[in-house]
Fold this protein.
Amino acid sequence: IHTGHIIGVEALSRWHHPVLGQISPLDFIGMAEQIGMIKPLTEWVLKTACNQATLWNEAGFSSIIMAVNISPSHFLDSDLVPLIKRIIKGTGILPGDLELEVTEGVIQTNPENLAVFEHLKALGVLLAIDDFGVGYSSFASLKHLNVDNLKIDKYFIDDILVDHKAKLLVSSMIEMGHNLEHKITAEGIESEQQFTMLQELGCDYAQGYFFSKPVSANVISTLLKKQLAAL
């Protein structure tokens, strides 16, 4: 957020149906979970995203983090850690260039949840708590979890310029996260004023339509080439 450099991207699923047209992930992700298709869909997304990250690395765009969302229903599946191992081996992505995002719903202090986090960290991948602040996590959970990044939900960023409480909450989350040695990402930034305020509050990373709407890998390659030429 202080250099303006692109340090990573987030993989977003899009489905263009030949008859129904563009279908929102809010619809088809939930459907995939209901009918048991979320695991093969996640595996396809991981392979596609990590292969792209490897191509960017080979093209000279080093250390571009590829963030991929993991469904809460899949996170505790016994095959998740072996799947991530296979993806890393099969695509050649550096483990530190892969960030797995999970929502607050999976943050619990029971041993099963904590073990998954520890196994994934042992692989060397990054872990992020997505949509932070709007779920059901507790400070007790954060005390036990070994994560790298807290992503503050867009819900708070939307009102940060006009609602003192929203600004106070964001400031508190940033300070708390830093004290727990987490990096902080603000999601959903749509204006320069929001961006400037988050800089002043000490946020680490920023993402949102202010920088780029969802685009294809080819468009991102062009953005990365421009950045590399400017360095």
Observations:
- The chain has a mean pLDDT of 91.
